[in-house]
Amino acid sequence: MKKIYYYSGAVFLIIILFLVGFILLIPVDGISSKNMAMINLDGTISSQTSESGFFSEFEPSVDDYIEWIDDAEKDSNIKAIIIKINSPGGEVIASEKLSRKIKEASEEKVVIAYIETMGTSAAYQAASSTDYIVAERQALVGNIGVRMEIIHYYGLMEKLGVNATTIKSGIYKDIGSPTRPMTEEEQRMLESIVDESYYEFVSWVAENRNMTINETLRVADGKIYSGVQAKRVGLVDMTGTEEDAIEVAAKMANLSNPEVYEYAGSSSVGIFGMTFNDALCSFGYGFGKGLSESNIEESFKSYQIYY
User: Fold this and answer.
1) With the C-alpha atoms ordered 174, 176, 181, 183, is the resulting torsion angle positive or negative?
2) Which of 209, 19, 23 is closest to 113 using CA atoms?
3) Would strands 224-226 and 140-142 be described as parallel, antiparallel, or unpaired?
4) What pLDDT sits at residue 30?
5) Which helix (H) or strand (E) holds 18?
6) What value does the mean pLDDT take over residues 272-301?
7) Cα 227–230–215 angle (5° rounding)?
8) Which end of the chain has fewer CB atoms surrounding its CB within 10 Å, N or C?
9) Rounded to an integer, what distance in angstroms lies between the CA atom of residue 249 and that of residue 182?
10) For residue 200, what are the CA distances in angstroms to 64, 77, 196?
11) Does 173 participate in catalysis according to the annotation?
């Protein structure tokens, strides 16, 4: 009986080693053989990487995007970078970090944005950091603005007969508390933060799109534009497809035969539905949540600010 277990274990080990060796021997078409990189910016721009595994989808954090851009920027074979955007925006600090990195890369190489389905709020800030923006005709673009949402449930507490006692060290320590009304002074304080963030957002877009502050303010009222409308008001440079974006990037970088390496793309080797890059990562989610606590255990801090 022991021999059966021994031989079964040996066979299992051999199979595992064979599979690992097979995967390692699969020819991976790496970035070093390409002359153009495409970074897929999908979903919410966040400082946190989602839980991932063999049966769950890998969602990159801003650090992953920055690493990919940095990798493409430092590769001497890569002459142009395309940021392919399908994102509604994201956290304040994460979005600022990403925009700064894109701007840095654009000073070294050709970097253009391609807005496929949506490039709004902080995702548009990222797009505006590039040298050129191509958007699908019916993509959603813009939504430049800031909002802060404060949830109050003290009215419901009163109806349920629930009371809350807050012991605090400073007069403003529980600002935005959902268990009491907000004072006019507190509201003015939070409005000043929103106004400050809004000015930073507008200034960034104005500088990178070569627009005046007044020109930017006219389109920075939170409105969402189609790609066609965004072209009309100066938020994108042209409407077109992914192929058009590649063609523009190739022309700007003087590439006659563009070959694209895609980060987080769907054309790599798949393992249980994940891309090869995603599988590697599984071995080792408005500008918003970066200014507030997102942990449900600290939900009493109900104020959040969004781009």
Assistant:
1) positive
2) 209
3) antiparallel
4) 53
5) helix 2-25
6) 38
7) 170
8) N
9) 51
10) 25, 35, 6
11) yes
Instruction: Exactly one of 74, 168, 173, 251 is catalytic; name it.
Output: 173
* Residue of 144, 129, 134, 139 lying closest to 69 (CA atoms): 129
Rounded to an integer, the average pLDDT of 65-74 is 95
d(C-alpha 204, C-alpha 212), whole Å: 11
Give yes or no: 121 in active site: yes
Domain coordinates of the chain in residue numbers?
Answer: 31-306
Radius of gyration of the chain from its Cα atoms, rounded to whole angstroms? 24
Choose, from 46, 95, 121, 268, the residue flagged as catalytic. 121
Give the global pTM. Answer: 0.75
CA distances for 276 relative to 31, 81, 267, angstroms: 13, 21, 9
Lowest mean pLDDT among 169-183, 198-212, 255-269: 255-269
CATH number of 31-306: 3.90.226.10
How far apart, in Å, are the Cα atoms of 102 and each of 70, 72, 130, 220, 248? Answer: 9, 11, 7, 21, 18
Give the tens place of pLDDT for each residue, 124-156. Answer: 999 999 999 999 999 999 999 888 888 888 898
